Amino acid sequence: MATLLTAVEASRQISKGALSAVACAESLLLRAENANSLNIFTHLDAEGLLQAARQADASRSSAQHLPLSGVPIGMKANIDVSGMPSSAGTSALRGHLPARTAPAVLALTKAGALPAGKLNMHELAFGITSNNAVFGAVGNPYDSARVAGGSSGGCAAAIAAGIIPAALGTDTGGSTRIPAALCGIAGMRPTIWRYPQDGVVPISHTRDTVGPMARNVADLACLDGLISGEPLAVKSADLTGVRIGIPAPFYDNLHPDIEQAADRVRNLLAEAGAVLIELDMSDVVALNGEVTMPICFYEILQDMPRYLAASGASCTLEDIVKGVGSPDVGAVFEVLNGEGRVSASDYYEIMAVRRPALKKACYRHFSENSLEAVFFPTTVMPAPKIGEDAETLHNGQQVPTFPTLVANTDHAGNAGLPGVSIPVGLPT
Predict the structure, then answer these.
(1) What pLDDT, on the 0 to 100 scale, is given for residue 1?
(2) Digit-coded pLDDT (tens) for 288-336
(3) What was the pLDDT predicted at 233?
(4) How many other CB atoms are found less than 10 A from the CB of residue 16?
(5) What 3 state SS string does the chain have?
(6) Domain count, the chain
(7) pLDDT band for position 14 (50/70/90)?
(8) Is 165 domain-assigned?
(9) Is residue 413, in this structure, part of any structural domain at all?
(10) Which end of the chain is flanked by fewer CB atoms within 10 Å, N or C?
(11) Which range marks the domain in which residue 211 is found?
């Protein structure tokens, strides 16, 4: 039962000798074996983890507590860890062993964390279901016939299944927050460039960011402070007079269960003294639609070759494209290498005009209404069934899966804004 502890709780128990790092690691390995059908890991080095745990126990000192002493954490398969394959869920990178470890991971290992393995994901992070044709689909721990979300689906599933207390995912347009919502955990996207970007297989250097995922917000704050170097105090907040925006477009066409959960939380916020401000953010939705995919389509053609060279990969971008196995990801590369290819002039116009307009619109809503935050459902629907990558049934109608799931999260990636998904209701 050791791994059902949060990361902070496990670290405290290990530091004072109430729990051994070895017991924590053994529990992880047992739970991983029992949850094997969920297809969560792309790489799990059992002996390496146990050896690291034995070393953590041997060097434990109550006088020198580390924030994550002996705590196993997982990394999405596109985040570099020396000695572990950074496959990014695709064939051409299956055997890619980077010599370096991403700075975000190093920040956690210096704090005592033990890398437990690499976690499955949507191929090349270009999707939100983690239905990966190369490594297999990630199942949702609450219903293995449904997706875990993506692209950090393995991270969310591992935490929700009780295998690990925390993980590092990545987020471009919702890839930490969407799987967190669909699996009932907490997931965070920090402000762009709050964390170092090195050592991550990229899509877009102006949108991508590493993001912590865990069972609760206290663990997110711990991981965020360690990676950013700016520790946050976690305490109960007095919401009296705190102004929180309620953006109408992000409440459109909600699944009844999600609508009910959102209403319940809004009532709780109001009872706690928060001032809820109704907003019309339709301008943000419209502006976001003008910039989102063109940025990814242009930047990956520049960013991926740079990553491959810096990490010592033996393959090229062309090799990666040829080896793509997932049909939806293959279709993306057909578009960006064909008629949908974004020209340099179009990209610069987006970056100079349209994207600044999106950011300005977001900031205007905050400044004009004196907001501290906005509150809305992470997704408008629960997890679709595995295989429903193109379309899924929502409120009695067939809808396109990707744009429907990403509708409420994508603007934050384009505007460089932070966001956090907090579980407010779980399946019964």
Answers:
(1) 33
(2) 999 999 999 999 999 999 999 999 999 999 999 999 999 999 999 998 8
(3) 74
(4) 12
(5) CHHHCCHHHHHHHHHCCCCCHHHHHHHHHHHHHHCHHHCCEEECCHHHHHHHHHHHHHCCCCCCCCCCCCCEEEEECCECECCECCCCCCHHHCCCCCCCCCHHHHHHHCCCCEEEEEECCCHHHCCCCCEECCCEECEECCEEEEECCCCCHHHHHHHHCCCCCEEEEEECCCCCHHHHHHHCCEEEECCCCCCCCCCECCCCCCCCEEEEEECCHHHHHHHHHHHHCCCCCCCCCCCCCCEEEEEHHHHCCCCHHHHHHHHHHHHHHHHCCCEEEEECCHHHHHHHHHHHHHHHHHHHHHHHHHHHHHHCCCCCHHHHHHHCCCHHHHHHHHHHCCCCCCCHHHHHHHHHHHHHHHHHHHHHHHHHHCCCEECCCCCCCCCCECCCCCEEEECCEEEEHHHHHHCCCHHHHHHCCCEEECCCCCCC
(6) 1
(7) very high
(8) yes
(9) no
(10) C
(11) 2-228
Distance CA 73, CA 195 (A): 18
CATH code of the domain covering residue 72: 3.90.1300.10
365 assigned to some structural domain? no
How far apart, in Å, are the Cα atoms of 148 and each of 343, 359, 374?
Answer: 35, 30, 25
> Which residues are identified as catalytic?
76, 151, 175
Q: Is 177 inside a domain boundary? A: yes
